[in-house]
Amino acid sequence: MAEPDFEVGILGGGPAGASLAAYLGMHGVDCVVIEKEIFPRPHVGESLVPSSTRVFKDLNFIEKMEEARFPHKYGAAWNSLRGTRSHGLKDLPDANKVDVRFMEREQEGVDQNYTYHVDRAKFDLLLLQHAQSLGAHVCEGLRVEHVDFDDGPLPRIRTRLGKKGIDFRVRIVVDATGRNTLLGRQMKYRITDPVFDQYAIHTWFEGFDRGAAEQADFIFIHFIPMHNTWVWQIPITDTITSIGVVTQKKNFASDKKSREEFFWQCVEMRRDLYEGLKKAERIRPFKDEGDYSYSMRQICGDRFLLIGDAARFVDPIFSSGVSLALNSARLSHRDILRALETGDFSRESFSTYETLQRRGTMNWYKFITLYYRLNVLFTYYLNHSKYRLDILKLLQGDVYDEEEPPALQKMREAVGAAEDNPEHPWHALLNDLTADAFKAAR
Amino acid sequence: MIDDGVTQTIRTFIIQSFVRDERPENLPDDLDLIRSGILDSLAIIHTATFLEELAGMEIEVHELTPKNIGSIGAMAGFVKRLRAQP
Predict the structure, then answer these.
(1) pLDDT band at A98 (very low <50, low <70, confident <90, very high)
(2) pLDDT, position A55
(3) What three-state secondary structure class fits A235?
(4) What percent of chain A lies above the pLDDT cut of 70?
(5) What is the pLDDT of residue A82?
(6) Is the pTM for the entire model greater than 0.90?
(7) Which of the 8 DSSP states describes residue A427?
(8) For the residues of A176-226, what is the DSSP string, one character each?
(9) What are residue A73's DSSP bridge partners?
(10) Domains of chain A and any CATH numbers
């Protein structure tokens, strides 16, 4: 058999691809990362969850995270608006606001009580450089066009630079192309989510006052009185804050100008946020994101795997994206090492990864679905002494241990109770966005 | 009207939590707290937690119906039924 140029070819150098390259580099595997952009480049997805820490520790990357002075994220807060109450009754003290601190629950393999918010341009560059320092080859500015699986026993990655084609022969191909989903598209595996069709528009502000110090570095999710629409507030530095509006596609105009107006209309519904932002300076153009929420019929095959967003994308309300990407690298690298050792490159040889990755993303997906379906339940169980830590476990990104974690079971039963009984006071609150979520394709 | 202790505790909770300026006589046992807007969706969360403490046991979401929590009288009956359980 012809010798490969590299053992493993990784398409895409974002967090999934770079961390996998770092894992493989640490184990002395000859791998190449092929990245279409030249880093640094901006990217959406700026807030992490604590399950990322385990990967940073594995890769000896914590020190670099600290040196880079990314804001520490100790927790998260959700603000929803109360409906107007009849005859001027007194408002509940902050019942519309819930928050958590990660330190409330010990997390296996994670010994710090915070995670990070990151400027993705800087973070992705650091992680990719880290992979390089561990021995990975990195080609930037090189666009992969296609992967040939039928041209001999080894897959051939076809790239193009200007008029010139460059090919790489590898034993295993890993698609880490994010929402480009290069292999998923090529193989026609992609299933658009039947329920979620969210879009986002976002930008950065300088000088926005994030309020009281003890929560200034939390992520804030602000709900606004528009169907399935919310606003993220993520600290990027001491003075820069990322603000994004996530909404359904139908609310999203086709022209750029109206989309920017839409951003301001949404923000204006939260008076406090709006006034704060008006005093701050917008320092980036608005950017929008589509292609929200899809899954893949298959995430592994003979001689290939899909990791990170290339394997599945779920609505970002719980900041799951980067951490899912990092953990997909953690989970997949073990199967890849074994395959290289045994010479068995069949789909079955990647089945441990496939099972865990599907379980993890499915648990996030169910959590998100239940959250949208009956928002009040999230508040209820997060405030409930018996279930708070079970919910926090999900929020920390510990989603790989159980087929259906207790918190999800509980929420699912509760949604069922409200669905089945029209007399139930929460029946009227059921949201139509998430019907059938538990039947949705995996 | 002479309250039993449970009813009185519930009435006090409702007034202090949701209608601080209301006089107890304006909240009869059978006043529909949900229709009247006193118990909105979030107030129900607080009430459920309170009733769990009072009853000394977990209350399931499917039990948070008007029959059990729709009025002060309903809540008192509900708590008593829960406490009577073996």
Answers:
(1) confident
(2) 98
(3) strand
(4) 94
(5) 54
(6) yes
(7) G
(8) --GGG-HHHHHTT-EEE-SS--EEEEEEEEES----SGGGTTSEEEEE-SS
(9) A115
(10) 6-67+118-192+295-360 (3.50.50.60), 198-289 (3.30.9.100)
- Asked if B41 and A425 come within 8 Å (Cβ–Cβ), the reply is yes
Residue the block writes with tokens 């709900």: A223
Q: How many CA atoms lie within 13 A of A101 on its CB side?
A: 8
pLDDT in tens, B40-86: 888 898 899 999 999 999 999 999 999 999 999 999 999 999 998 87
Quote the pLDDT of residue A36. Answer: 96
Closest CA to A100 of A389, A373, A400: A389
Cα–Cα distances in angstroms (integers) from residue A286 to residues A42, A265, A307, B43, in the given order: 12, 14, 28, 38
How high does pLDDT run on average in chain A?
Answer: 91
Cβ contact, residue pair B37, A87, below 8 Å: yes
Cα gap B57→B79, rounded to integer Å? 10
Helix, strand, coil shares of chain B as percentages rounded to 5?
60, 0, 40
What one-character DSSP code corresponds to residue A47?
A: B
Pairs of residues, one from chain A and one from chain B, whose beta carbons lie less than 8 Å apart: 74
In angstroms, the separation between the Cα of residue B61 and the nearest Cα of chain A is 5
CA distance A155 to A142: 18
Strand A6-11 vs strand A164-175: parallel, antiparallel, or unpaired?
parallel
- Which residue type does A136 have? A
Q: Under 8 Å CB-to-CB from A150, ≥6 apart: which residues? A: none
Using a CB-CB cut-off of 8 Å, the residues of chain B touching A89 are 18-19, 37-38
Over the stretch A226-268, which tens digit does the pLDDT of each residue have?
Answer: 878 899 999 999 999 999 999 988 888 777 778 899 999 999 9
Tens digit of each residue's pLDDT (9 = 90 or more) over B9-33: 999 999 998 888 888 888 999 999 9
Residue A88 has pLDDT above 60, yes or no: no
Residues on chain A touching B65 (C-beta within 8 angstroms): 421, 423-425
Note whether B48 contacts A380, CB cutoff 8 Å.
yes
Using the beta-carbon criterion (under 8 Å), do B42 and A423 form an inter-chain contact? no
CB within 8 Å: A83 and B20: no
Chain A neighbours among B 17-76 (CB < 8 Å)?
Answer: 17-21, 34, 36-46, 48-49, 58, 60-62, 64-67, 69
Residue contact B60–A95, C-beta within 8 A: no
Which amino acid would we find at residue A352?
A: T
Nearest to B18 among A92, A380, A386 (CB): A92
Give this complex's ipTM. 0.89
Whether residue B40 and residue A413 make contact (CB cut-off 8 A), yes or no, is no
**Other CB atoms within 10 A of residue A1 CB:** 7
